[in-house]
């Protein structure tokens, strides 16, 4: 697996416009010490347990511990609030379980998603190695179940992508069911041509100036008006 650059840690919890915004940036790991800078299930539970508003999670993570990611997945899946995850940079490895637990997933333009097989280190004799291999295969089956439920893709297709260590663009993540939409910038209104604006303004002004004259001419040409003038000897 190619090395992913470290993502700076950020964990903020705030309310904006009636929504609960949780910003998660960094590695997904179990928190062993109070000052560990990691995305973890305990802090997320403490932040969201009492929340009844809609929840928006802004996520940027290269992943980390599979079991911690699955714990967060199940917590979000069972949360009574509507949960939206917005990927602001990267959602890779165990971080993809966080998006799988959401009711809606939004990819920002230029963001990425990556899935792969479970990996670990092993040491010992062949029996020890075999036990590790068996554990990895079981974990892969668990990961497949999560992705299958989220995307509707077949197990064979998902396994192929995991073996490949597949990277998805924002649009591909939507195409294959990992996300629901891509957040794009609102198009700016094209400014009107200055010459056209001036021309329209002049046309309106001329029309307003000529209107009284036109009304007077029309009045003079009416039959009753002509008869009255003839009687007066005009």
UniProtKB/TrEMBL annotation:
NCBIfam families: Clp_rel_HeadMat (NF045542). One of its GO terms (biological process) is proteolysis. The keyword Flavoprotein does not apply. This is ATP-dependent Clp protease proteolytic subunit. The keyword Calcium does not apply. InterPro entries: ClpP (IPR001907), ClpP/crotonase-like_dom_sf (IPR029045), ClpP/TepA (IPR023562). Keywords: Cytoplasm, Hydrolase, Protease, Serine protease. Gene3D superfamilies: 2-enoyl-CoA Hydratase, Chain A, domain 1. The lineage of its organism: Bacteria, Bacillati, Bacillota, Bacilli, Lactobacillales. It comes from Enterococcus entomosocium. One of its GO terms (molecular function) is peptidase activity. It comes from the Bacteria. PANTHER family: ATP-DEPENDENT CLP PROTEASE PROTEOLYTIC SUBUNIT.
């Amino acid at each position: 697996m190619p090395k992913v650059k470290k993502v700076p840690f950020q964990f903020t919890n705030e309310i904006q416009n009636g929504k609960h915004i949780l910003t998660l940036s960094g590695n997904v790991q179990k928190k062993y010490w109070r000052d560990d800078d990691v995305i973890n299930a305990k802090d997320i539970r403490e932040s969201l347990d009492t929340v009844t508003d809609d929840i928006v999670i802004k996520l940027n993570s290269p992943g980390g511990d599979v079991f911690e990611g699955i714990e967060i997945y199940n917590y979000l899946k069972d949360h009574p609030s509507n949960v939206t995850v917005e990927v602001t940079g990267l959602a890779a490895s165990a971080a993809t379980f966080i998006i799988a637990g959401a009711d809606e997933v939004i990819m920002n333009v230029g963001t990425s998603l990556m899935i792969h097989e479970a990996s670990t280190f092993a040491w010992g004799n062949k029996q020890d190695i075999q036990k590790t291999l068996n554990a990895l295969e079981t974990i892969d089956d668990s990961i497949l179940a999560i992705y299958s439920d989220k995307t509707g893709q077949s197990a064979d297709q998902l396994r192929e992508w995991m073996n490949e260590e597949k990277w998805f663009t924002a649009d591909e993540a939507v195409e294959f069911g990992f996300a629901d939409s891509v957040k794009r910038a609102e198009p700016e209104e094209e400014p009107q041509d200055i010459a056209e604006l001036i021309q329209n303004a002049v046309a309106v002004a001329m029309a307003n100036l000529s209107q009284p004259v036109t009304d007077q001419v029309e009045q003079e040409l009416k039959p009753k008006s002509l008869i009255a003038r003839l009687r007066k000897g005009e």
